[in-house]
Amino acid sequence: MTTALAPGGAWRAEQDLLTEPVRADRAELEAILHDDFVEIGASGRRWGRPDTIEQLVGAPSLEAYQVELVALRELADQLVMVEYEMTTAERGLVRRMSLWTNESGRWQILWHQGTLC
Q: What is the pLDDT of residue 2?
């Protein structure tokens, strides 16, 4: 297993997804977000892949944040759960979880949820 395909590659991909260059790049987002991607927002709203891509490209900047990895669990072959905490001045602490899959030689995010604390 190469480093990029190891479970830690999912955490690196998650961190990349938090950067403005990736969030502003439609082609990169289309490559990173799995075709079946779903996000459940803090409001409870369900976001699909097209809505998420439009939202990120339209407003790629994030306010200053700190992230801390809580857990990285390999749930099945090439399926990893990433759990982390993000802290910002505006929202405070948000617990986040994502499922990443590697079906095509690249980590893709399949599901994400953020919960305000």
A: 36
> Residue 71 belongs to a domain with what CATH number?
3.10.450.50
* Residue ranges, the chain, pLDDT below 50: 1-3
Contacts for 53-57 with beta carbons within 8 Å, 24 or more apart?
Answer: 53/26, 53/29, 56/23, 56/24, 56/29, 57/23, 57/24, 57/25, 57/26, 57/29
Q: Which residue has the tokens 């297993």?
A: 1
Rounded distance, CA 92 to CA 85, Å?
A: 10
Instruction: Check: CB of residue 94 under 8 Å from CB of residue 114.
Output: yes
Domain carrying residue 93: 3-116
